[in-house]
Amino acid sequence: MGGSEVVEVRVADNCGFCFGVRRAIDLAESTLRSGAKVYCLGPLIHNPQVIERLIERGFHVVEGPEDLPAGATVVIRSHGVAPEVFAKLREREVRVVDATCPLVKRAQDRARELARQGYRVVIVGERDHPEVDAIVGIVGHEAVVADCELPAEALSAPKVGVIAQTTQDSATLRQVVHQLVDTLTDELRVFNTICNATLERQAAAVKLAGEVEVMFVLGGRNSANTARLAEICAATGVKTFQMETADEIDTEVLTGAHTAGVTAGASTPGWIIEEFVRKLEDIPG
Ligand code: F3S
Q1: pLDDT digit string, tens, across residues 66-109
Q2: CA-225 nearest atom, ligand 1
Q3: Which of 49, 81, 115, 127 could form a disulfide with 85 if both were Cys (CB 3.0 to 4.6 A apart)?
Q4: How far is the CA of 21 from the centre of ligand 1 (A)?
């Protein structure tokens, strides 16, 4: 393609901040404005650029409750934390502002109820993701975490209850449930706890991926839902790039393209998307 043609850039109908992330940031910002010393256990959201801006305004990110000084205010991030973390925070007598997303809380409640009723709880999600860690903490050590292949202990349980990490994709949930349907002898209960914001972003990304020649997925490299968006875009066969900011655009990737699509994970702010689109629009195809 000649260097004078401009690439048409389209942005997914649904992308960027979800309401749970927006709420967590609003709570962190209003707590900062109150003059409190505000802390978070791990990054508040999985977007390094947003965290950097919060840190410039006095926000602190620490590893665990033991790192909190006396008199601190701690914001619980949208992924939630395990009951034992809440217990440690009470022991340290710090003030807690709970920004756990209500939809994450709903998944936690489902898991708690399943465990109480004697189901072996299978969490379809990523090991070591904070949301999954919190749910494992709620259910206890009987919980089974599966991404797509089920471990044997889930297949041998007589009663299995399934929930999904809120940012899981439906195909993986379906795959795990299929395995259980094929092997389970007694009882299976499934709660689809994937949140609407995730489903809407995934559907919009797949639709756009089918209409353009190259897709860009924006979000923190540590963001699970961004990685899933990139996976499902790539699975449609379109050339897909995952990036954090416009600085990473390599103009070569647009060579020969007439159309480019942009989507973004649930923790990617509007200003990153806008900057990215502006830069793409300035690049000749
Ligand atoms: Fe909540 Fe869904 Fe966002 S669970 S934090 S609305 S991705």
Answers
A1: 999 988 999 999 999 999 999 999 999 999 999 999 999 999 99
A2: 7
A3: 81
A4: 7
